Structure prediction request, 309 residues.
Amino acid sequence: MTNISDLSVNIAGVRLKNPVIAASGTFGYGSEYAQIIDTSRLGGICTKGLTLNPRTGNSGIRVWETPSGLLNSIGLENPGIPAFIENELPRMRKLGTVIIANLSGAATEEYASGAALLNDSDVDMIELNISCPNVKAGGMAFGLEPDTAAALTAAVRRVCTKKPLMVKLSPNAPSLADVALACVKAGADALSLVNTFKAMAIDMVRRKPVFDNVTAGLSGPAIKPIALRMVWELFDTLKNAKVHVPIVGLGGIACTQDALEFLMAGSAAIQVGSATFAHPAAMIEIIDGIGQYMETAGLSGVGEICIAR
Prediction:
């Protein structure tokens, strides 16, 4: 097998030992999974979505299984950034991997205040979430149009002076490419895509929508071909615009083949989310699988996997 050091990647100045990252909202803060897998083998962990103040999340049903996918309407339940920094972050630092704080909010001022706290904390990177479809204010609303996305990115960038800033894009944007370019111009160091697709389910017995918010976010294998296409297209857009920022791809990645497809399509790294619920060791197997593929193909670096150049 390829030596683990050969799998290292650099995302906006942060070195990851491999390109496999636990996606936000699917890995908690890592402590539960640390009892099952060796978290130090992961390239990184994205925290559960964080807001300046504590949030209780959405009422009613929060998770609903669909064919080849999962609908969730969690609503960014979290203890708030001050409590995260004091209680959760010290434990996460012991997990032996890169820590990426996923930042969300309901207003620009809330995002900026949260970013300022994280900027002075011990996280390695901030992932700016402008794409969550499960909150009534903020979230995805910031990521649908280039002007609003750029304004929020710029506001966070002004206070985020010590940490690399990765912006998490919404697949629900009318023009994802325009939003991405606007975010880079406003100061994004990297881009992650895609977040969940806006979707819904109806309870046939109750004869009403399953979720109190009516709509929810769809993840899992069902979205993988669409997410893969979006990564490929964005890589091409950035290349043609001569914009050089790394893409972190996600959306339905469940096995080594999925991960390799995203790396071939232009992702510098990938995130694994829903697959971890069904198979906690999925990321470890993907890391080993990427190493085996590189050895067989005679590749010396992860970047050589890309075919979209």
Residues 224-240 form the longest helix (17 residues).
